[in-house]
Amino acid sequence: MPSPRRSLATLALTGLLAATSACGSSSAAGDESLEVWNRASPASAEVTKKVLAAFTAKTGIKTKYVPVLDNWDGKVQEAVAARNLPDIIINDSGMLGTNVSQGLVGPVNRDQIAGQGELHERAWEQAKGYDGKYYAVPYTVQTVATLIRKDWREKVGAEVPKTWADLVALAKAFQEKDPDGNGKADTYGMVVPASTERGYASWWASTYIWQGGGEFLTASGGKFTPAIDQPKSVEAVKWLQNLFCKDKVAIPGALTLVTKDAHPFFETGKAGIYLTGPYTFGRFDKSLGKDKYEVIPSPAGPAGTTSMAEGENIYLMAGSKLQDQQKKLAEYLITPEAQKIGMAGNSDGAIVKLPVNKSVDVLAERQDDRWATIKDVYEKDGKYFPNVPNWLPFRQRSAETLNKIFADCGTDVQASLTELAGVFKTELAAQKVG
Q: Signal sequence span per UniProt (predicted)?
C-alpha cells in the first residue's frame, strides 16, 4: 500500500487532485460555508473564531472552522486521500513549496488581491515561489529571539549576553550556581528543541549556523549549490555540538523535543535560556510571569546576529467551489481590522504576531517593548530559508544529520556534513535547481 506522501504525489501528477481536493464536505453537500483550517491551541482557536465571525458579519459569507493542534501533517494527508481538503488553510510559510509541488495550491494574482499594496514587501517574500510567482497571501510574520530568565541572570550576577561566549557562560552559570535557590543541582542552561520530527533540529540550529557565517545552500544564476559542508558551516555546527558534548548546557532529552513539549522546561524553571518565537510571550506571561524573563536579540556569533524569520500564509486551496469567497476571506484577513483582532493584545491566543499590514502599529496595539525587539530583529536581521521549490526535504534531512551529530560526541562533523551536502545535491537535481 503506497504511503500518503506517495499517494499525494501521484494524485498531483495525474491532475486529479487540483480538480477535486479542496471541495470541503460542507461545500460538497451544497453548504456555501467556507471551510477554514489552521494549527491552533484552544486559546488561538478562540481568537480565530472571532476573526471569522467578524468576516461573516462584514460580508455575510459563512465559515466552517476546524482548528488542528496535533498531527497536522497526518490530518492534511487524510483529507487529501479523501479528496476533501478545506477551502482555506492558514499555515506555515515553510509549507509553500510542498503545497505547490503537490498541487494543493495554484498561483495567486497578487494584483487582483484587494489591499495587497498595503502589505510590507518583505512579507510578500514568504508567499513567493522559486519561479517568482505568488502561491499564497501573507498573513503574519515573525522572527526568533532569545528568552532568558531575568531573575536567574541577576541571581548569578551576570550581564545580558552579547556574544556566543557570553551565552555559553550564562548557560553554565545557570547549571552551576543554583539560580532558583533551592539548594539542588536541578537547573540547566538551554532549552533545545532538537528533535528530527518536522525538522525541528534544523529549524532551531539555523539561526546559529547563519550567525556563524554558514549557509545551507548558496544561490547563483537561478541555481543552488550545497554550502552546509563549507568551513564556516562546519565550524558553526561544531559549536552547536559542543553545547551538547563539551559545555553540556542543553537540557536532557533535547534530542527528542519538539517546541510544544519544550515550552514547559522554560516556564517551570528547568532551564533558563530559550531561542524561540514571540508566540510564547502570552503563555509565559501567564505561567511564569512577565517580570521573570527578558527577550533579547540572539547574541552575536562570528558573523553577526542573523535570526531565522518565518510566518504564516493564507493558502487558497486548489479545486474549491467557492473561489470568490476564498479571495474575499484572504482580502479581509489582511485588513487592519482583521489583523488587529488576530493580534489579540498580549494574550496567549494571538494568531497574528507581527502584522503584515503596514498601517497596523504593533506597539500601539500591544504596548509592549518586547514586540519592538521582535520587529527590529525581523527588519534588520531576519532571514528566511532558501527559496528552493520545496524546502522541506532539506530541512528534514539536515535535522536528521544534526540530531546524530548532537547525539554522538565522537561524530566527525566535517564528514557528516559532506555526506549531507551530497544529499542536498541530489535533491537540488531532483527539484531541477542544482
A: 1-28
Neighbours of 55 (CB within 10 A): 25
Q: Rounded to an integer, what distance in angstroms lies between the CA atom of residue 294 and that of residue 7? A: 46
With a cut of 60, say whether residue 358 has pLDDT above it: yes
Is the Cβ–Cβ distance between 411 and 405 less than 8 Å? yes
Q: 286 with 154, same domain?
A: yes
Q: Which CATH number covers residue 54?
A: 3.40.190.10
Domain shared by 291 and 301, yes or no: yes
Residue 212 and residue 269 share a domain: yes
Domain of 17, in residue numbers: 4-142+310-383
358 CB neighbour count, 10 Å cutoff: 13
396 φ/ψ angles, rounded to the nearest 5 degrees: -70, -45
For 419-431, what is the mean pLDDT? 98
- Give yes or no: residues 80 and 127 share one domain: yes
**How much is the CA Rg of the chain, to the nearest whole Å?**
22
Do 262 and 136 belong to one domain?
A: no
What mean pLDDT do residues 328-346 have?
95
CA distance linking residue 420 with residue 57, whole number of Å: 52
Confidence (pLDDT) at 31 = 67
**Is 156 in the same domain as 259?**
yes
How far is Cα 393 from Cα 425, in angstroms, rounded to an integer?
A: 12
Residues 267 and 165 in one domain: yes
Report the alpha-carbon distance of residue 188 to residue 265 in Å, rounded. Answer: 9
Structural domain count, the chain: 2
Same domain, 48 and 60: yes
Angle at which helices 231-245 and 413-430 pack, to 10 degrees? Answer: 120
DSSP structure class, residue 317 = B
Name the helix (H) or strand (E) containing 64: strand 63-68
426 bridge partner residues: none
The owner of cell 466552517 is 64
Give the separation between CA 237 and CA 227, rounded to whole angstroms. Answer: 13
Angstrom distance (rounded) from CA 304 to CA 301: 5
pTM: 0.90
CA distance 11 to 18: 8
Cα-Cα end-to-end distance for the chain: 32
